[in-house]
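Build the 3D complex.
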Amino acid sequence: MGTSPTGRWMLRAAALAAALSVSALTSASFAADPIKIGSVVSATGPAAFLGDPEARTLKLYVEELNKKGGLLGRPVELILYDDGGDANKARTFATRLVEDDKVVAVAGGTSTGGTMAMIPVFEDAKIPFVSFAGGIEIIDPVRAFVFKTPHTDKTACQKIFEDMKARGFTKVGLISGTDGFGKSMRAQCLKVVKDYNITIVADESYGATDSDMTPQLNKIKNTAGLQAVLNPGFGQGPAIVTRNYAQLGIAVPLYQSHGVASKSFIDLAGPAANGVRLPAPALLVADKLADGDPQKPVVAAYKGSYEAATAQPVSTFGGYAFDGIQLVVQAIEKAKSADPQKIRDALEATKGYVGVTGIYTMSPTDHLGLGTDSFRMLEIKNGDWALAPAAK
Amino acid sequence: MLVALLRSRLAALLLLAAIMALFPLIAPSAFYLRVAALVWIFALAALGLTILMGYAGQVSLGHAGFLGLGAYGVAIGPAHLGLPPLLSLVLAAALAGLIAYLVGRPILRLKGYYLAIATLGFGMILALVFNSESAVTGGPDGMAVARMTVLGWRITGALNWYWVSAGALLVGAWLALNLQASPSGRALRALHDSEVAAAGVGVNVAAKKLSAFVIGAVYAAFAGGLLASLNGLITPEASSFMQSIELVAMVIIGGLGSVFGAVVGAAFLVVLPQALTAFQEYEQAVLGLLIMVFMIFLPDGIVPTIRRWLLERLS
Amino acid sequence: MAEFLQLVFSGLTVGAVYALVALGFTLIYNASDVINFAQGDFVMIGGMGTVFLTAAGLALPVAAFIAIVAAVMVGLALHRFAIQPARGASPVALIMITIGASIFIRGVAQIVFDKQFHSLPAFSGSDPIHLGGATILPQSLWVMGGALVVVAGLYAFLEHTLLGKAVLATAANRLAARLVGINVTVILALAFGVSAAIGAVAGILVTPITLTRFDVGTLFALKGFAAAMLGGMGNPLGAVVGGLLIGLLETFGAGYLSSTYKDAVAFVAILLVLLFMPRGLFGGRSVERV
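Done.
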């Protein structure tokens, strides 16, 4: 009839062996003693909309770097793994990078969970690790070998409350996603809100995959004295919140978080997005920056090459990856060595590095290097980003 | 002689022990030891599931929920209740068994695929709870897990964890093989073949199914606890629907009702993302394809098929 | 009162989608005893397919039609290559096959489409309609109206066409149907094809409201399945009522109790149905008890 069960089994074993040898070959295709930089991102799975731009950015950047002659006269080899959004797999790939691939530095970690799972591996092996994830616990407490590029949600809260205070708002409603980012940003915001003389008068939440937030928004709408609403969250939730917000005709201003700092938010939320304010890196308003702005050339260059290569709008998540690998590369250049300890020291000594997310100045007590000034307060006008009028 | 070996349970156990003992000698780096430790741990969970699926002919589509219970138990015990890690693991496994008993008793009176559906719902609810109760479980970003200590010895390092997980699997395999040979095991296999006939010879069908379900849950909880301790961290993905499906896939690919099958299946699925690195994008499609192909063409799985082929050739 | 009405509108909208998915489950289950976990992925194909085709320049109705055809082809392929070869396998094995198919479809969708969220423009604008102090989107009316048309069409097809009656006959007793000359294989393929079309239509109608992504299928499948169980597995009226009920329960739960466990409503419903009324509200096909 066809192959016997054994025959079929042998075919399968052969296929697996073939796959293993192919992957071995492809990873051994570099010659002249390359500098190995490792990365683990969630390019597939539920966090893929974050990890995919990160993966593309990394590959694009390393390709361009090698075309320009590499680093310290050696080619750069990017060893990129995909953890599928699973912290356990991330940990395994981290071990592989350290033990098997013997990388000198790592730039990766799409989610806070994945990052936290990998940190012990890199710390034990004394390999510098620049994370692309948002959680404040990544750099607080400071760990010698761990850095990160995205703003913390605490900074975002501060920027937002700064703006609200300047506009005279004292009673604010919260509606947050129950994903990791939404939850942690909500917690950070609740911690700092008193510093701005603001009280939270409503506090609702929605599930990450919910498709209708009108019940929660209705409750918020009916809260007495409401002056503004803040929506910590990312993914599709904030887009739906924004649409429901307009549908219910809620008059007070809506603030989003930097978690939705990408063009797709405007596309998904539609006309309801107009008037929404959010803190975002300069990357989103590349063409609207003043000519003297130090970030303008860097932002324009990244945006140009990313959009040309991928035919997708640039996203801040890709931006975190860009800054991450740039930081590692410039640390290697400054240290003039590919020794992990020297790379780490050079990373910590980064001063005034102009990235697409902000201008980084690290120190032994600050392994993020960004303040509220790296955020621009943006307002959506006519379906596009615009710099919000400066707070008085 | 060879036939006797193939049929012997002790030989299977010794072979497994031999492989476990020899592997560290050929493993090039700690990475391979970690992968092997993961294989032993997931094989333990798959072993519990294969008892349920292979011996008792039932299916659990929410088995990762029990894995999560063990994992979070080991995390929450020391962090929130001040209990030592090993005690937390035992308690978590007992809790998993208890929940399996309570959920299984009414559901197992229903026949066919309804247990699968009930376990599916139950697994998803557990995953939601782990994700939502941040104060206790750390929420979507998970929580750190205290290092496991056994009689004062802190388990750290890839090699130590390799031995610990190998040992756990060996114990689990020995228990499972004994179960297979015992009257209970024979009763379970009778169930698989025909519930009516089994009932006809006096097997308490519902009670036997329930015991298989509880055993499966306890195995999974132990595996979960080991996994969390190995990683020092647990996130809600460990009890997600996809994790449950991967566990079932391990059993399907390796072979229902076979101890070695659980190991082979676990090895397959743990190694798959490592082997596919260049083609990571295709992993989901490949997994789906594998499940379909095995269920349609090779429903017995790899190990029982090889064993049967060998026995046919040799007799 | 206005708040209650708002919740009712939201609940009925999402419930209509669950009802369509549940209807797809029921059709396939009745014809072949298979519980098709890939049902939700037809919804995804409808939505994502239309998004990508309109982005490529096609007009919405054309794109939608092609997306539906694509879903039907996937449904037929599922039957021909995954279900038919496994003829005679146990119900559990068939469930695993459809789960494998769902994972496969999702894996391919990740590569063929992309990993971002996408939306479609609302069919007749997004200005909300005010009704009794609550607001309802025009698209919600499209969803509910569309569901009604599909249900009515399916009913008319099953009860009033010869082919439809053949489907009913196959569902009632496959052997007898074969004996009176009905080509059962064709009927099964038809059931898969029609289910896929229903799912795709649901996806296209609801994407302007809920957005879409390569992995939205799983949750739709699970909730549609809960709806079918609630109404009684195999009972079409039960599927529709079950879908609306789950939608309403979810929304009321989120509005009045806690929004954190909104997704749990469907799964709790599954467990409760299995524990207390395995035959569902309207009495599905018999459930064997030990």
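Chain C is about 70% helix and 0% strand.
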